[in-house]
């Protein structure tokens, strides 16, 4: 029997933010079994972790693939360790495909320490413009995603992407972002190649957006909101080549499964 938790991340309200499934393991199952569990859960991400030294190895799977970095499922994993599994330390260290990640308790919720993703300006791909139905002010390319910058929050809210066309881009997908009406910046994130047409709240995308908006707005601490149907809030801080993301989490489900 295996334990499974479901946590809503980047929110302080149940049924908000981005739900993630968390599966603690004593040792790794085969990759095809991990992928099958993620597909069965049918959430944007399922996180699996095993103990390693004083910390943990952490992996994330969408219903269709393993990914290099996932913010909301890392936040949810830390929440499970602190709130359900009685982790006694002040800081959790996760080893991942993106290197070492660190999570500590914050005044409200948790603070995650991630590597910054410094995107570079590129010519807008034709498939991106057609997929979004709008010409961005500029387009940048990070490690996995394109980032399309628009003039205002209303444009982001009104986007109706063509996901089939977007799949022609390769990579994970597209981040659409703009200055916010009530926060520093807003976004929506579309990852059809990872099996997620629109992700509710995407921590990893903020490792791309935070350096960009910090430079544009001339400030290193920014309030962000992902304006998906569920929505979520993050406090983002740029310190050198690291991005610190703060957010809250709420437990929804605790159960067991057998394979």
Key terms:
alpha+beta, Diaminopimelate Epimerase, Chain A, domain 1, 2 domains, 18-stranded mixed sheet, 6 helices
Question: What is this structure, in a nutshell?
Answer:
By secondary structure, the protein is an alpha+beta fold. It has helices at residues 31-41, 71-83, 126-132, 153-158, 163-166, 206-217, and strands at residues 2-9, 18-24, 45-52, 55-61, 66-67, 91-96, 99-105, 110-115, 120-122, 138-141, 145-149, 173-179, 185-191, 196-199, 221-226, 232-239, 242-247, 249-257.
SSE pattern, N- to C-terminal: EEHEEEHEEEEHEEHHEEEHEEEE
Query: Which band does the percent of strand residues land in?
Result: 35-45%
Number of domains: 2
Shape summary: globular
> What is the count of DSSP helices, taking H or I runs of 4+ residues?
6
Q: In words, what does this structure look like?
A:
This is Isomerase. It holds the Pfam family PhzC-PhzF. It comes from Flavilitoribacter nigricans (strain ATCC 23147 / DSM 23189 / NBRC 102662 / NCIMB 1420 / SS-2). The chain has 2 domains: 2-114 and 245-257, Diaminopimelate Epimerase, Chain A, domain 1 (Roll), CATH 3.10.310.10; 120-240, Diaminopimelate Epimerase, Chain A, domain 1. The protein has an 18-stranded mixed β-sheet that branches. The chain is an alpha+beta fold and 259 residues long. The longest helix has 13 residues, at 71-83. The protein starts with a strand and ends with a strand. A hairpin with a 5-residue loop joins strand 15 (221-226) and strand 16. The chain has helices spanning 31-41, 71-83, 126-132, 153-158, 163-166, 206-217, and strands at residues 2-9, 18-24, 45-52, 55-61, 66-67, 91-96, 99-105, 110-115, 120-122, 138-141, 145-149, 173-179, 185-191, 196-199, 221-226, 232-239, 242-247, 249-257. The radius of gyration is 17 Å and the shape is globular. 20% of the residues lie in helices and 42% in strands.
